[in-house]
């Protein structure tokens, strides 16, 4: 974990709590969409297969994909906490600014490295 003067331990604890709450919320949203244990969305086999249903299914799958990606980012950030590397850029190793972490707590890179792609 970052332990410089710009990011204190209480602030890091706040980021951990934010990430844990976000993980819970994302998991709940996926469950509401019907994202099951199979790794995909569950649909009622008796559900009519019309073009509208197909379109809605596509939208739900796209949303589920976005939610799964966000959940993966949050879980990776929580893993960095466990490894003691949270708050350090995974590319250059420099501390990620508190402002960046406040804006995006799961950020794995500092703003400079993130802007490089």
Concise account of the structure shown:
This protein has 117 residues and is mostly helical. It is 60% helix and 0% strand.
What do you see in this structure?
Helices cover 60% and strands 0% of the residues. The protein is built from 4 helices and no strands. The radius of gyration is 18 Å and the shape is elongated. It has a single domain (9-116), classed as Up-down Bundle (Four Helix Bundle (Hemerythrin (Met), subunit A)). 15% of the residues are buried. The protein is mainly alpha-helical and 117 residues long.
Number of strands: 0
Q: What is CATH's topology name?
A: Four Helix Bundle (Hemerythrin (Met), subunit A)
Q: What is the ordering of alpha helices and beta strands? A: HHHH
Helix coverage percent of residues?
Answer: 55-70%
Superfamily (CATH H level) name: DksA, coiled-coil domain
Cα Rg: 18 Å
Main sheet properties: none
Number of domains: 1
Tell me, what's the shape? Answer: elongated
CATH class type: Mainly Alpha
The CA-CA distance between the termini, in Å, is 23 Å
Task: Give the mean pLDDT.
Answer: 84
Overall SS class: mainly alpha
Count up the helices. Answer: 4
CATH architecture, by name, is Up-down Bundle
% residues in beta strands: under 5%
Name a few traits of the molecule.
117 residues, mainly alpha, Four Helix Bundle (Hemerythrin (Met), subunit A), disordered N terminus
Spell out the blueprint of helices and strands.
Blueprint: H1 9-33, H2 51-83, H3 98-103, H4 111-116
């Amino acid at each position: 974990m970052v332990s410089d003067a710009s990011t204190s331990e209480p602030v890091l604890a706040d980021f951990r709590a934010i990430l844990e709450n976000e993980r819970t919320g994302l998991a709940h949203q996926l469950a509401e969409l019907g994202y099951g244990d199979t790794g995909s969305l569950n649909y009622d086999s008796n559900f009519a297969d019309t073009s509208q249903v197909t379109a809605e299914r596509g939208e739900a799958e796209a949303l589920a994909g976005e939610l799964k990606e966000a959940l993966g980012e949050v879980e990776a950030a929580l893993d960095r906490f466990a490894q003691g590397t949270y708050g350090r850029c995974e590319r250059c190793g420099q501390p990620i600014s508190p402002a960046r972490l406040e804006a995006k707590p799961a950020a794995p890179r500092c703003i400079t490295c993130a802007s490089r792609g």
